[in-house]
Amino acid sequence: MAIEGSSDARFRGDGARYNPEELLVASLSTCHMLWMLHLCADAGIAIVEYADDASGEMAIHADGGGEFVSVTLRPRMTILDEGQVAQALALHHRAHELCFIARSVNFPVGCEPVVTA
Predict the structure, then answer these.
(1) How far apart are CA 117 and CA 103, in angstroms?
(2) Could you tell me which residues come within 8 angstroms of residue 94 by beta carbon, excluding any fewer than 6 positions away?
(3) In what order do the strands lie in the sheet with 114-116?
(4) What is the model's pTM?
(5) Which of 10, 40, 65, 72 is the most buried (most CB within 10 A)?
């Protein structure tokens, strides 16, 4: 599968293509989601909807280089059983601890989950 990439439009890139910064935030979000799906399946929690509005904050330096200073995941999940909401929230924290990508970056990755039934 080819990923049509480009620099960000602010750096004369093609805004219709993915840039590396978007892909890094997406990989953090996806890693968290996949761990959640796994942990919820093991716990018998039925997920009916899952979305994330993840975002990252970057610092641009005088020399033109930059770096991420933080990423915040905002997963929103709907489950079938209202009695499992607290357990699902706890599993978000466990998924965050287990995420390979979040454990590999040198900036903080926050997680602000919301679970409804």
Answers:
(1) 30
(2) 35, 39
(3) 47-52, 75-79, 114-116
(4) 0.91
(5) 40
Burial class (CB in 10 A: 0-12, 13-18, 19+), 27: middle
**Between 85-98 and 20-43, two packed helices, what is the crossing angle to 10 degrees?**
130
Mind listing the pLDDT tens digit for each residue in 71-82?
999 999 999 999
For residue 37 the two structure tokens come to: 């799906």
Contacts for 85-93 with beta carbons within 8 Å, 24 or more apart?
85/115, 85/116, 85/117, 87/43, 87/45, 88/40, 88/45, 88/115, 89/113, 89/115, 91/36, 91/39, 91/40, 91/43, 91/45, 92/32, 92/36
Helix (H) or strand (E) holding 90: helix 85-98
